[in-house]
Amino acid sequence: MNWLKLLNPNRLGQSTNSNQSSARSFFEQDYDRIIFSHPFRRLQDKTQVVPLPEEDFVHTRLTHSLEVSSVGRSLGKKVGESIVDKYPELKESGYSAFDFGAIVAAASLAHDIGNPPFGHSGEDAISAFFKNSSLGKWIQSQVSVEEWADLINFEGNAQGFRLFNRPDNQGIKLTYSTLAAFSKYPRTAHLFEKDDSRKSQKKYGFFQTEKQYFEELANELGLIRLSNEMSWVRHPLTFLVEAADDICYHVIDLEDGCRLGWVSYEQARDLLANVLGDSYLPEKLEKTKGKNEKIAYLRALCINKLINECAEVFMENEEDILTGKFDSALMSKVPSKRVLSNIIEVSIQKIYRSHLVLETEVVGHRVLEGLLEEFLGAAIAQKGVEESSKKDLTVFRLLPETYQELITDTASLYEISLLCIDYISGMTDRYAINLYRKLKGISLPGMK
């Protein structure tokens, strides 16, 4: 792979891009397209880790995404400066460190856009519905092996790629480079030859319905194909998007846990101090008033240090990244990795397994499986596959008109399933709960 080809401002289906203004690059336009999109706005009411408590502010998917994007921009610019110096032809072609920063910032902003309500438990709930429900098992007999793999392993990354490339979402079509940087797992769900040693093959990044789109961008960017199957090496800037996410959830989840009282101030302080090492100055910390403010101060210092460490690891391995030999998370190679593993252990014990988080996971399973049962059952009934009842027709009419039309126009049970998943995974936590309560007769419209 080479950087001149990897920095491609064209968009899917377009051979050339002629709408660049003097004020914004194509990659900066990507950022604006994402931030003004409806799927991005919905992240405001989607759980990051901790559901919205009354006691104090914690991060939602929206605030998390904004912070990851900020870290990603810094990482991209820092690495970009080194790459532009190393490859003079980039500067000669008009590229600068700001282009690297813009691509990573946009891809980082979008990295969670395909996640369903209730965090990662929402992904598990959708997968469980198809694996375990009678309707799901019947659908298995009607779809291909590759399509079934998509349904029983629902993946927010693939859902995000689908959102950006759905025909009715023309307004957020992204450049090849940003789409590829967004795609942490450049493969389909079903692989005969999965390589577990490659971080990029841990999950998958696109459904069968979008595989031709990924193949197009892979060809345009010169991504290395790993086999005869639908599997490629990552776009190099994907490593920076992943690192930005890793930095934020390592450090900021700990901060949230401390604010909620689940992790003591002293433990959080010492963990962050260990990340800083010799840079930790306790006498300077004591000049900051308030425990929350002190943790926030340490968090900022830690993020800055981890950005520098990740950038160094990237440049040390840049040539192996371009040949596809390097396929590990940057954070697994930084000097602070031992301390970061301690932070994760504490976060698992005191945050991710807290009663509030576990209760939310249970609710998420019940709600999403219940909504899929209602809407997917109603959608299939309208196709004449099963006997349709008045209730099915009523539930079907609750779908937005766009979804009703798309479902009516397709005979594929796989695509009908994906359309229902599109609708339900796009819901906010609060809306999903309220709609579930109404469909199950727990509450009436207008009731709180």
TrEMBL record:
Secretion signal, residue range per the UniProt entry: none
GO molecular function: dGTPase activity
InterPro entries, per the entry: dGTP_triP_hydro_central_sf (IPR023293), dGTP_triphosphohydrolase_C (IPR027432), dGTPase (IPR006261), dGTPase-like (IPR050135), HD/PDEase_dom (IPR003607), HD_domain (IPR006674), PHydrolase_assoc_dom (IPR026875)
Enzyme kind, highest EC tier: hydrolase
EC number of the protein: 3.1.5.1
UniProt superkingdom: Bacteria
Record keywords: Hydrolase
SMART domains: HDc
Transmembrane regions listed in the UniProt entry: none
GO biological process: dGTP catabolic process
Start and end residues of each HD/PDEase domain: 57-259
CDD domains attached to this UniProt entry: HDc (cd00077)
Protein name: Deoxyguanosinetriphosphate triphosphohydrolase
The species this protein was found in: Marivirga tractuosa (strain ATCC 23168 / DSM 4126 / NBRC 15989 / NCIMB 1408 / VKM B-1430 / H-43)
